[in-house]
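User: Show me an example of a complex going from sequences to structure tokens.

Assistant: Sure. Here are the input components:
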Amino acid sequence: MFHRESGVFKTTYASDMALYPLPIAKWTVAALALIFVVIVPLGVHEYYLSILNLIFIAIVGALGLNILVGYTGQISIGHGAFMSVGAYTAANLAVRLDLPFWLTLPAGGLMAALIGVVVGMPSLRIKGLYLAIATLAGQLIIEWTINHVPAISGGAQASIEVPRPELFGVVLNTQFRLYFFLLFFAALAIVATLNIVRSRIGRAFVAVRDQDIAAEIIGIDIYRYKLLAFAISSFYAGVCGVLYTYYFGIANYEQFQLNVSIDFLAMIIIGGLGSVLGSIFGAIFVTLLPIVLRILLENVGSLIFSPGELANVISGTRLAVFGGLIIFFLIVEPEGLNRLWRNIRSYFRVWPFSY
Amino acid sequence: MRRFVKSALAASALAVLTFGAGEAFAQGKEVVFGWQCDRTGPTALVGTVLCPGYQDYIALVNSKGGVEGYKIRVIEIDHEYKVPPAMEAHERFKKEGAIVEGVYGTPQAGALAKKLEEDKIPGTTPGFGTAMAADGKKYPYVFPVAASYWSQAGAAVEVVKEKLGSLKGKKIAFIFYDNPAGREPLPILEELAKSEGFELRTFAVPAPGVEMGAQVLDITGRFKPDFVIAHLFGRSPSVSIKEFKGKGYPLSKIVSFVWGSAEADIIAAGGMAVAEGYNTMQFAGVGSDFPVLKDIQAMYKAQGKPSPKEMESSVYYNRGVVNAIVHVEALRNAIKAKGGAMPTGEDVKKGMEALKGKDVTLGAGLLPPLEVTPADHEGGGWVQIWTVKGGKLVKTKDWFQGYRSTIQKHIAAEASKS
């Protein structure tokens, strides 16, 4: 990730597909694991862990959406709804049948995958903006259904309170404990995605994205792979919804409305379509930047404004700066933060002997 | 490379400024209040007016020397009505040692209910969250403080009964925003329809609630009710006023719940003159004719500034002030109970549970005569009715509770369910 060979020396397919392009990469991963498993949780205040927790959940959702939009080229603005499907499935199972999270979590994901396939069916016949509208309809239908079917929503308030997840008798009720819970699933999602995209399935997705007729001619069953993309992507979204549910202790459909779908689309577009690292960058950018901007404005602004005025100034300025930065980064590098990162790395590849 | 070093230096300087400077403040005798707000999201219409009210009252308290010698520092966080940032805000408040928290928004209130209890920080949710949160045993750290939608439903029926004499055989239409908060009053209305013998018909307005011609036509043309109870949010209250007016339905036969009751709603519908007779429900006093608000104006004058323009939109502004009064009085109770020592979140919770609206002299008229107890965190569910008369909102019914026993019965039934 941080290191680079001095040129391209790959001669076999196996080396091209390897997860670790260089032996040193194993050490990088080990170092990252050490930082996130030991150093960060022990050395950082719980408040910062809570921010990381939100980022971890966002990473799962962003990865899922990127598989569909970035890798397969099928657009979806219904991912907020898929999250709510996962959330309500898990919440109902956890409350009514008293199931533990390691059963409700995959169940939520599978249910979301099932619904995702149904909503994704129009993708077999339409593309682009048309598909966007079809998935938008899916979002609205799912929202309406949850809102109006008490059997799913658990009553007029459409919210179900779930107990905290429990593992080996430890109740995961603090940010510190939830940190490991969420880190595990974020890491799992990253590894799974890395492996999906370098496998036959991932290559097929990319072929469908780049030119679906050509893909069909070389023997890829595009119907199957399009629906598979929807299923995998919705599975991630469902798991993301379940994680939100356990994190907040409540499933509430108002947490998963259209603006959430848009937020996740924003993440992968800023981060970089069709890249795992880009999804992670995007999730970090969209979650962290408003917080950093606010803290920055608080500290700078408190020198100028009274507390009452400051609150008003911060809100507006933060939104403007956030929007401005998105535009800035997309102008600097239309392919997202991931591309920017790669450019930096290529720059250092031959540094200081650049030509 | 030099450019790279430069920008890296700039970035680290920025980081130091961001995370370092906050710690440098002197501590002194200071307590921290956490305050969530939405000034830029979908409910910015409310937040941009309500939150200055909160901030102004705290500034007023601080300018007079604080509460029992303690100054208050408010950390306001704008979460844009999104849930994850609300969790981040709560953790930030906790880190800074906040002892009370103002929660903003219904999904946020749901997501934080458990966390508030785990972290022992009392949170107020006036006008947000579920009616069940009134149950202090089930939600020990959640304080709705203001009338819930159930209490508002009871109060609305009470008003209708007063205007019509008897409800027997009368027809009442309930027009509501089709979301969980909008549907929440239904069980209360249905039960009262049975016990009072009126015919209830409900009309759902789908989101975003700016198109309700069909529903209003259905109400005025077909159902022809004796009274309309409206429970709408955002832009939809003003649309409903226009539609009812346009169909010739007398606005004096409408009573609106608390989120369709602001001056802004009426002005957006075409002005006060158009809405003559429109009945609004309030959980805080309306207008600027209160001693506290005079004090705030005086404070601004002493600083050589004009009074804040938000004050003119008194419905939401005053709700912010009331919320601040509740926080400050709970703090006062907590400090007194500890004999002047620094209170914790638990102490403020107990202080909140000892809160009696009628003892708070400086909130006279603005604050309802609420009585918060360990069992009843709603404080009784008091509301006022203000009616549009001669171009302004005029109080037509002082603080009252509608069908309190029915509402309590429902809360008890919900509590026994789980």
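The lines above are the inputs; the final block is the predicted structure for all two components together. Residues 20-26 of chain B have pLDDT under 50 and may be disordered.
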